[in-house]
Structure formats: C-alpha cells, structure tokens
Amino acid sequence: KQEVTQIPAALSVPEGENLVLNCSFTDSAIYNLQWFRQDPGKGLTSLLLIQSSQREQTSGRLNASLDKSSGRSTLYIAASQPGDSATYLCAVTSGGYNKLIFGAGTRLAVHP
Amino acid sequence: DVKVTQSSRYLVKRTGEKVFLECVQDMDHENMFWYRQDPGLGLRLIYFSYDVKMKEKGDIPEGYSVSREKKERFSLILESASTNQTSMYLCASSFPRGQETQYFGPGTRLLVL
Fold this sequence. Notes:
The structure holds two protein chains of two kinds.
Chain A: E1 4-7, E2 10-14, E3 19-25, E4 32-38, E5 44-51, E6 56-59, E7 62-67, E8 72-77, E9 86-93, E10 100-102, E11 106-111
Chain B: E1 4-6, E2 10-13, E3 19-25, E4 31-38, E5 42-51, E6 54-57, E7 64-70, E8 73-78, E9 87-94, E10 103-104, E11 108-112
Parallel strand pairs in B: 2-11
Antiparallel strand pairs in B: 1-3, 3-8, 4-5, 4-9, 5-6, 7-8, 9-10, 9-11
C-alpha cells in the first residue's frame, strides 16, 4: 500500500532564506507527483506537477524534483517571503482513476 | 478558470442527523472526489466517482455514502452523523488521465455535536 511521508512536519524560517521540503513515497509505481499549497481553512492549490518520466518542474521561485527510483521528491523555495507561509502537501497518483495519496504536510512559517 | 464550489463553508449538526454536503464543478470533469482532512493525518479519500451514477469506495468509506446524478454535481451524505465525523471535508475534480491535476473546492468545516 502506497504511503507518503513529509519531513519536517513544521518549519519556521526568517524571510529571505532558501528552504527545502522533503517528501518520500514507498511504491515507485506512480503516474505523477504533485505539490499543493493550503492556506489556513482553505482548499488546496496545485503548485507543481511532475510526471513520472520527468525529473523536475519549475515555477517562479519554486522548483520540485523527483527521483522515482529512490521514492523521493523535494520542493525548493528560493528567497522565502512571509506570503509563502502555508501548509505544503505532497501527493502521488498511483493506481487507476487519477486517485491521489497525500502526505500529512509541512507547515511553513516565514517571519519578517 | 476551473471552479469547484461546495455548498457550505461551515456546518454545525447534531449527532444522528442526516447531513448532505454538495460539490459542483464547471469544467466538465469526469472524476470527482471527496476527502476528509484531519490534523496529523493529511487528506484521506472517502469516495470518488468516475462517471454519472458510478462510485467507488476510497480508503475510509464507513459511515458515508455518495450520489452523482449529474456530471457536475457530487454529493457526500452522512446517514447518521457522529462526533468522529467532525472534520474538514474537501471536494475535488479532474479529468481521468493520470497526468492531470485535481482541482479542489474551498472545503466545508463540519462540527458534529
């Protein structure tokens, strides 16, 4: 059974730091891996989607990498800002029907 | 822009009540999903549907049922609400292909007293 783990569970950094969030999964047979952002009390917003054949995706200050063979992904946030404060969720798609399996998330706080 | 809407942002119900949560999407997506989110547990899939009138159990279907009479609408039903169903409920939709993302609604925070 696929399991997704995110480390750390919480992170607090000063503004301007570069930071890395980690995600690992137990079964390498995935279609894709996604990173989502969730603001308190809100729904999820997709940040980056990496297909199983890809190694990384970039969007602005965000870069996500995927190493399928080792079951790992990292989300790199450059020059963090207070507006980046949110919970970041990693999810993989495996099996049929485009079902997602989520990690528990990393709660990020960026302070001025 | 894709829009997924949920009928309520906040809901307070009593134990034993029948509860309906409704989700509507405007992107003609085949797939629709209901998740619940609890602290420390992340999102867990309750039910999903890949077509009108079709449904499949997710990881935690006990105590829930669903209905999909129209393509754009997917309802989650708590037949007899219990306090352990107090949670944040999130609806999502997507195309069926594995390379497509899911689009999420804003969530319904349900409190069962």
